[in-house]
Design goal:
Beta-lactamase, glutaminase activity, 3-stranded antiparallel β-sheet, globular, alpha+beta, EC 3.5.1.2, hydrolase, binds 6-diazenyl-5-OXO-L-norleucine, 5-stranded antiparallel β-sheet
């Protein structure tokens, strides 16, 4: 297939990828530590690409809402960074952790400062700070996602939030441990309620590809206003590339070559700066919490189109 130019439709390449995925179903399993996610059919597959002008191409289950989970960490980071700027980096780092997304192990010897905003500990710090600044971090997130996707029906999945809350001991441990270092402002139960609600957002590949477009537009929102400076948009893309898929970030950069962020609902968002955004969904996960078919599909997309940051 020829390398794509800026006027090319993405539809044929999406259809080719969907056919390939259908022929070779992956081996992944849905997340089961959040019981409400365990029932997902691992064979579901959807993929969407959003052009900078808001045109969306899609295939498979691309209009089916799924649990966004850690994909939301990109948006809360952007919303907080736009408000407090570099002061955020006194509370959370920007280095890959090399550990699983819910690991506690580095926090003690790094004095309660999480390695990066995309592991759970770092995302808890970001949500805490956004909540302090807005009075309603998850509400702020939902309003942003609705505006950017143009979908006013986007909402939280109360069943998923309750299910995670009932099995949330590890996130509670992270929150309390960081609070003991003075790195959490709000009462930990308030923070956890906000965080579980944030993670429970149900949105489709089309919604999430559109909502990610501000990162391909160098910080500009759908309505033309600026959320982030060009430099801040670059920073978030860089952290997605190095930390967005946790202890698999090296392999993801090697195979896909794009800033990307995964969630245990089986979604992955990815950015081609200045060109387009992608969201792929398939609930079968590998042992590091990344969608097996999702990574394969993005790998095929960058191979077939020649679009990557490298
Ligand atoms: O906090 C958790 O464990 C989940 N709500 C989100 C984790 C997640 O999506 C990690 N991504 N692969």
């Amino acid at each position: 297939m020829a390398i794509m130019t800026s006027t090319t439709t993405f539809q044929p390449v999406l259809e080719r990828i969907a056919e390939e995925i259908e022929r070779t179903p992956g081996s992944g399993r849905p997340a089961d530590y959040i019981p409400a996610l365990a029932a997902c059919d691992p064979r579901r597959f959807g993929m969407a690409v959003a052009d900078l002008d808001g045109t969306v191409y899609g295939v498979g289950d691309w209009r089916q809402p799924f649990s966004a989970q850690s994909l939301t960490k990109v948006f809360t980071l952007a919303l907080d960074l736009s408000r407090e700027g570099d002061a955020l980096w006194e509370h959370v780092g920007r280095e890959p952790s090399g550990n699983p997304f819910n690991s506690l192990v580095q926090l003690e010897y790094e004095n309660g400062i999480p390695r990066n905003p995309f592991i759970n500990a770092g995302a808890l710090v970001v949500t805490d700070r956004l909540h302090t600044r807005t009075g309603d971090a998850s509400g702020e997130l939902l309003a942003f996602l609705r505006a950017e996707s143009g979908n006013p029906d986007l909402t939280f999945d109360q069943e998923v939030a309750a299910s995670e809350s009932a099995h949330g001991d590890r996130n509670a441990a992270l929150g309390h441990f960081m609070a003991s270092y003075g790195n959490i402002d709000n009462p930990v139960p308030t923070l956890l309620e906000q965080y579980f609600r944030q993670c429970s957002v149900a949105a489709s590949c089309a919604d999430l590809a559109l909502a990610t477009s501000f990162l391909a537009r160098h910080g500009i929102r759908a309505d033309g206003s600026r959320l982030l400076t060009r430099s801040q948009a670059k920073q978030i893309n860089a952290i997605m590339l190095t930390c967005g898929t946790y202890d698999a970030a090296g392999d993801f950069a090697y195979r896909v070559g794009l800033p990307g962020k995964s969630g245990v609902g089986g979604g992955i968002i990815a950015v081609v700066p200045g060109r387009c955004t992608l969201c792929v969904w398939s609930p079968g996960l590998d042992e590091r919490g990344n969608s097996v078919a999702g990574v394969t599909a993005l790998d095929r997309f960058t191979t077939l189109t020649g679009l990557s940051v490298f």
